[in-house]
Predict the structure.
Amino acid sequence: MTLQRKCSICLLIAFTVLLFSNSPAHAESPDDILIITNKDVNLDTISLKEVRSYFLKKRIKWQKGNNVIPINAKPGTILRKRFQEHVLLMTEIEEKTYWNDQQVRMGLNPPPSFSRTLKAVFKLRGSIGYVFRKDYRENVAKLLMVVPAK
Amino acid sequence: MTKTTTIFCLILSFLLFGLPVRSQTSETDAEETDANPPEEMPPNVSSQDSRLEALERTVAEQQKELAKQNETIEELKTAKDDEELDDFDEELIEEGSFERLIKIYGFFDIRFIKNIVGKDSSYYLVTHEPASFIAPNLNLYIDSQMTENLSALGEVVFSFLPHGYERDFEMVGADGQPVPGTDYSRDDTTVINPNSLEFVQMGGVRIERLHLTYSPFDWLQMMAGHYLTPFGIWNVDHGSTVVITSRVPYMQIREVVPRKQTGVQVFGRFFPTDSLFLDYAVTLSNGRGPIDAIADLDENKGVGLKLKMTYEWDRASLALGGYGYYGEYTDVKKSINIAPSNPDLIMEAIIDKTEAFDEYIVSADLRLTLFGFLLQSEFVWRYTHYTIPTTFSLLYQRLLTPEPGYYGTHYAADFQGMSVYLLGAWELPLSKWLGDVRISPYVMYEYAKTHETFDYQNGTFLFWGLNIKPSSFVVIKLEPSVLFPANTKMVGGNAWHLEAQIAVFF
């Protein structure tokens, strides 16, 4: 490889790095879904798969042994639909079918739903829920992860 | 320097140095503007100044007003929040306490069936030839979460049986005459209600499962009662709204693995990674017996171990599991000795074991889902070793002995049995046209040799059909199936079964 060609490649890489380093990070959107827990939950971070496990009741206990209480938004709301789509990876019908089947298999019931999930999480010990960023208030519940609005 | 290099340098320079150059230009313009201020204000500029001042005063006043209004809004919000808190608490209490209330739900199905077998086939001894509508069972669940760690579940089945059950058959010998001591009998539970004089057919109730579960941790939970054996896929799914096919695999019908047990179970789940689940279960029970749900007729208990691994991706999953079981089956006959040799007794019980065998059972299962495709398979194997062999009933003896007129006594022999099935299904990608309606064609093949010495229990099955879910509460199944019996002389040829089923969850 000639010296000139090497210089060209280095400049190209530098240009690319400069371009992307100046790109802005994911801009916060009021429609981001924030995964939140009650303050007594001893977790600092959580993965999307873990969230799914809790909301599908494949995991039912926190590490200390207290019950995980998943809190859903009311059926049919935009928040619930976005959560189904981006976190559960299910449609509304698929989620209903899942819970019907789980009830037949092992008597496992779906999580309760509330119109204001932030307050429900605030009040219920051991609970995990979700809320739009625009509805979130600091110090009410612990924020564990952000699911960006797509 | 090459042309390419030159171009890149120019672009890079433009990006890095372009903006400051423009800024300098603006500042320069401003400087130029300020460099030569006018010496006198023209008359129209003075009036503009005063208008500007007036506007500034108006803006300041409006800003003050806005600040006040914002304060009021905050006060009102807080008051509203406090008011709503009471309503919210009520909602929370309702939802929270609902967790502790008894929940009732269930499923049932309605079927239309038609059996097509050779004329006068012995298959019709266990089923009926004419096409029939049937509503076989209603499964009702009652469950309650009593405390954070304690829950109870009961599943009760209401059935029209034993009404219509054909309990015995008259046997006809080579001479065309009925064999003495045999007769046809069919249960008829019709009674007359003495209050209304109505004819009423009584049905039956059975307890499918009834257990208490203590769940302190994901990895350690305990169950006591009458539970479904935690093996395989079908036995856990077991409801007609959940299983894909209309008909049940033959291995389930023959109960190669005991479907249910009465005893205790310790089970749990580990999570080595976010995507990997490891399940285990240890069962200890009365084992299999003639009345195992209510009593064990021997001191030996049935023990079992289940291990299962499940790996989940976003749109796919793979589950591999197995269950091993050992138990002893015992049946007894009781007599009363009213002339005991012991002078201290008026009577004594004589308990004779009439049948006993040890059984060793192994099962394995696989379930793969991948973008709407399902592949499911189960294998079961059983070895039965008789310690007290039983004699067969007259019917079975006749089936075991091809020579006409010979009704010698036959004792059961040790035997092995196995069955394996493979089920494939595909949820068609038709949501663009059908919305939430799900249609899945499926096919299932089962090879069953559940009793190596008794061909009547062996055969190959082929099911295929459509599983249609118009909603999350209803499943429609259209399914032809065919049995290729191992011994066509016993059944009289292949047996076709056509079934349409609507299964409902409520």
In short: DSSP finds five helices and six strands in chain A. The helical segments of chain A are 3-21, 48-55, 78-88, 92-106, 117-123. The radius of gyration of chain A is 21 Å. The longest helix of chain A spans residues 3-21.
